[in-house]
Amino acid sequence: MNIAVQDSAQAGRRKQLVLVVALEMVALSAAAVAMIFFDLGWVGAILIALLAGAFTIAIVRVGEGKAKAEGNFSVAMGRYNRRMLVASAVYVVGLFGAIWADELIRPGGPLAFLIGFLPSIGVLVMVVAMARLVAEEEDEYQRSRHIRASLFGLGTLLVLATIWGFFEQFGLVPHVPSWAAVPVFALGLGLANCLPGRRA
Question: Which UniProt keywords apply (predicted)?
């Protein structure tokens, strides 16, 4: 394939990915405003979760198409993407289930701990998916990129948590719940994956 045509196709896929992400942000923002303005309660929350799920699947498909076109896609990455989609669904169902159960039955004792643990199951599945990606990836360059991205995400979490923790200790910022660790790590991981990689 002509290099100019190939570059043009890659630029098109990059634009498509940016467009899908931008559409997701606009759609979710509009849905959140509608949920608050019209007081949609549980129905609105479920609709937002379904909307986010649909966009997540679209982003994964567009991202996979882009990776295939650039020669950066592997079978292990495909399996990882599917596992992460399942883990995300388990997380959302666990979170909504825990909130619903807490409001409905107001549990105590061991049952309260079990219900509080439900959203964490999806996160555990995510960690297993990341570990299996590194174990199953046959391309050394791709494996190295996955490990570097994970370390960047972990470093982002450690640095931000430490800085925020000291600020909180001195009463400069409000408390942030510890479950925020996963989104912060995910942001660092995503940022690292957006950075250009180099083959040695």
Answer: Membrane, Transmembrane, Transmembrane helix
What is the spatial distance between Cα 27 and Cα 22, in angstroms, rounded to a whole number?
A: 9
Q: Which pLDDT tens digit goes with each residue over 53-81?
A: 888 888 888 888 888 887 878 999 999 99
Q: What are the boundaries of each domain within the chain?
A: 1-72, 74-138, 139-200
Q: Could you write out the DSSP letters of every residue in 68-108?
A: HHHT---HHHHHHHHHHHHHHHHHHHHHHHHHHHHHHH---
Helix (H, G, I), strand (E, B) or coil at 138: coil
Closest to 123 (Cα-Cα) out of 189, 176, 190, 181 = 181
